[in-house]
Design goal:
A hairpin with a 3-residue loop joins β10 and β11. Helices cover about 10% and strands about 35% of the residues. By secondary structure, the protein is mostly beta strands.
Length: about 350
């Protein structure tokens, strides 16, 4: 309640046509000064505490509510604040929760995340991480305060592993974006995690055809399906991937001339990439298998099959002749994927 009180001001003084005593003037002036001082104190208090749409003259806007309760309010079009963590996230990175509700950046290497500046205990504080991934081999490690038990959901995260008590995530195959919501109700002493652009491992069924050796990011427990098979991954990816140039293809003998056959083994999975792949009657990104090494060494020749049964490549893929080069990536290593044929009933 305001301390301004005008009752002490005689609005009828001085009286016209009368020789008035100066004391009345002094009394009115004294009351006016007292009320102006009260008004100044109260206005200064308001300037320091009220929520405003724009900065007052001579001030910088600051609507920090300092954890003050706002209740029973209808809201519309509220926005979340953002903060850029940078385009080269690696090493130890501190996420200051007070800098933005949504914090984003690009992961380029192994990253250890730390968190700070959470809201006080007894309130829920959240930060949303929106992480682009440019390094498929990177690992993201969360602090030990992130709960690992099943209730928090950490153990059900896709590509989860427990390394020295910390939740560590490897990048799932083919994924370039990882988004998580980190929450706490005790000022960061314990954290929970929720993925919101990827499924949890218990519900993750990928629609793709993996190679028997798998690809970078595949881990035990992954499940995939295509039109013919359901696939289950039984171990983490451990194969060696070799990039091999393809100089040309020849319909005679259905052979490909490659930069070096010494990096290939019979029955290895091989994937072809590049704009010219289709000219050789191959499908870019599809898994093939080394059927035969016709001539070995530098600029040797091979044939490939689109099928493999019991570890052995099937019939040659019929190729067309082209002199336009493209690339291939062969995978040599442990066979970590098993498959079950799908049939109708």
């Amino acid at each position: 309640m305001s301390n301004i009180n005008t009752n002490g001001i005689n609005v009828n003084y001085p009286v016209p046509g009368v020789n008035n005593n100066s004391q009345g003037f002094r009394d009115n002036f004294a009351s006016i000064v007292t009320n102006l001082n009260s008004a100044g104190t109260e206005i200064s208090d308001l300037q320091a505490k009220v929520v405003v749409k724009q900065a007052l003259l001579g001030t910088t806007i600051n609507n920090d509510m300092a954890n003050t309760l706002i209740s029973n309010a209808s809201t519309r079009s509220f926005r979340a604040t953002t903060y850029n963590l940078g385009n080269n996230i690696s090493g130890t990175v501190r996420v200051n929760a007070s800098l933005g509700d949504v914090q984003y950046g690009t992961v380029t290497g192994n990253t250890i995340l730390q968190f700070g500046n959470w809201a006080p205990t007894g309130t829920q504080s959240n930060v949303q991480l929106s992480l682009s991934v440019s390094n498929a081999e990177a690992f993201i490690t969360f602090p030990s305060s992130l709960m690992i038990d099943g209730d928090s959901g950490a153990t059900t995260l896709e590509n989860y592993s427990d390394i020295n008590g910390n939740v560590t995530i490897s990048v799932p195959y083919g994924v370039t974006q990882l988004d998580y919501r980190i929450s706490t109700v005790d000022c960061g002493n314990t954290l929970t995690i929720e993925p919101y652009n990827r499924p949890r491992i218990s519900t993750a069924i990928q629609q793709r055809t993996p190679a028997p050796t798998g690809f970078q990011g595949d881990v035990a427990g992954d499940v995939a399906v295509d039109a013919n098979y359901i696939y289950v991954c039984t171990a983490s990816y451990s194969a060696t991937a070799n990039t091999i140039a393809v100089a040309n293809s020849n319909a005679t003998g259905n052979i490909l001339t490659v930069s070096n056959t010494n990096l290939l083994n019979l029955n290895d999975p091989i994937v072809f990439t590049g704009a010219n792949v289709t000219q050789a009657n191959l499908v870019q990104g599809e898994v093939y298998y080394v059927k035969s090494i016709v001539t070995s060494g530098v600029n040797g020749t091979i044939s490939v099959s689109s099928t493999r049964t019991s570890g052995t490549a099937g019939a040659n893929v019929p190729l067309t002749t082209t002199t336009n080069a493209f690339s291939s990536i062969s995978y040599s290593g442990s066979n970590i994927w098993k498959r079950i044929s799908l049939s109708t009933w």
